[in-house]
């Protein structure tokens, strides 16, 4: 239940469609490099797991997407990828490799991840999201610059890899 509430709460209210995911529309039914993100947000909703780990969302966007955080208002169209990750710090990601886990809240893991190459703020319910169900996300930091790479897979076994290097805007949504 906690996962469901958190998933509904994220500011990517471009919303996951109730329709079935069409992986073909996003990656031509083949492995895909999903680089091309130009900016990102660390969303801190203030949630702490029972084991004391912090829940942070890594949200990456391409040019063409504008997002007003914490208001949750977006516009434009483009690519979005996000991960729900568990760290020891509030507001910043621990450096290292985060492995997929279907268990909520384990330190150094992520349990939810999705991406789309065709997000549209004008038609959020029409956005086809592809769920990531295994893999790793690696984070390194030098000053305010993050180097993030991912090597994941969909439930159909298609590979999804890529990277992002740049700053991440901090967004406190704990009061929402």
Question: What is the element layout, followed by pairings?
Answer:
Elements: H1 2-9, H2 23-27, E1 32-33, E2 39-48, E3 54-61, E4 65-68, E5 73-87, E6 96-100, E7 109-120, E8 130-142, E9 145-154, E10 159-166, E11 168-172
Parallel strand pairs: 1-10, 2-11, 6-7
Antiparallel strand pairs: 2-3, 3-5, 4-5, 5-7, 6-8, 7-8, 8-9, 9-10
Along the chain, the helix and strand elements come as: HHEEEEEEEEEEE
The proportion of residues forming helix, as a percent range, comes to under 10%
Describe the sheet with the most strands.
11 strands, mixed
The general outline is: globular
Structural class: mainly beta
State the low-pLDDT regions, or none: 1-29
Number of helices: 2
Radius of gyration: 15 Å
What is the percentage of strand-forming residues? over 45%
What is the count of distinct domains? Answer: 1
Structural commentary:
- With 176 residues, the chain is mainly beta.
- The protein has one domain (2-11, 32-172).
- It contains two helices and eleven strands, in the order H-H-E-E-E-E-E-E-E-E-E-E-E.
- Strand 4 (65-68) and strand 5 form a beta hairpin.
- The two termini are 18 Å apart.
- Mean pLDDT is 81; it is low at 1-29.
């Amino acid at each position: 239940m906690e996962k469901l509430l958190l998933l509904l709460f994220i500011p990517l209210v471009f919303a996951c469609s109730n329709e079935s995911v069409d992986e073909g529309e996003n990656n031509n039914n083949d492995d895909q490099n999903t680089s091309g993100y130009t900016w990102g947000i660390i969303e801190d909703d203030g949630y702490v797991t029972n084991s004391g780990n912090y829940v942070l969302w890594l949200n990456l966007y391409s040019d063409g997407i504008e997002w007003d955080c914490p208001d949750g208002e977006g516009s434009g169209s483009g690519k979005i990828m996000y991960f729900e990750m568990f760290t020891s710090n509030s507001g910043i990601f621990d450096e290292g490799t985060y492995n997929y886990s279907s268990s909520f809240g384990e330190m150094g893991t992520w349990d939810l991840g999705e991406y789309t190459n065709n997000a549209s703020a004008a038609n959020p319910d029409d956005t086809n999201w592809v769920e990531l169900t295994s893999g790793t996300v690696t984070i390194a930091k030098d000053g305010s610059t993050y180097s993030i790479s991912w090597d994941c897979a969909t439930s159909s076994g298609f590979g999804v890899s890529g990277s992002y290097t740049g700053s991440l805007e901090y967004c406190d949504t704990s009061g929402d």
